Amino acid sequence: MLFKRRSPASFWQRLRGAVWPRKGFWRVPVYIYHRTVRLRATPHAIAMGIAAGVFVSWTPFIGLHFVSAFAIAFVLGGNLFASALGTAFGNPLTFPFIWLSTWKFGSYVLGRSAEGRQHIDLVELVKKFELSDLWKPLLEPMIVGSIVPALVCGGLFYIATYYAVQSFQTRRQAMIAARQAELQNGAMNGSKN
């Protein structure tokens, strides 16, 4: 195998790697940053794609995040690949926070107080999978509660991504221009000799 270890990892090395990766948790966000700024599109298109992915990550429809992000990015003129990268905002570390905050905020907006609520047996609701049973206690508050944070996060990510991509593309163009000028000067000096 091409990327196989020379000596197999011990149990403790595998356990440590499962709890705390050898290269740390920053590897994925740094990779996504580099992948995003190197996309070949306008800063607006890339930023709109990332914003669409982040926006969709706040919704409770996990299986539809990619499709929804693609649709929003397509309609708003965003980059489709960037929208897929933006959905990484919703991950196993952020989903519990997202779901709890959107449900609580949505319940507050809809005027459903904690005292008047009965116990929700989520396991039983999912087993039956009656959408009408899931809608009132769970999905409706999460959808309503996701609108404001999704717009705010999407806007913040749009601004941050736009300026990061614009800065990277400006630096890249300056490096290319300097390299071309250097090659032209070298060619001119070589022709004089």
UniProtKB/TrEMBL annotation:
Domain DUF2062 intervals: 31-172
Pfam families cross-referenced by the UniProt entry: DUF2062
The UniProt record lists the keyword Membrane: yes
UniProt KW keywords: Membrane, Transmembrane, Transmembrane helix
Transmembrane segments: 45-76, 142-165
Keyword Zinc-finger: no
InterPro entries, alphabetized: DUF2062 (IPR018639)
Record PANTHER family: SLL0298 PROTEIN
Protein name per its UniProtKB record: DUF2062 domain-containing protein
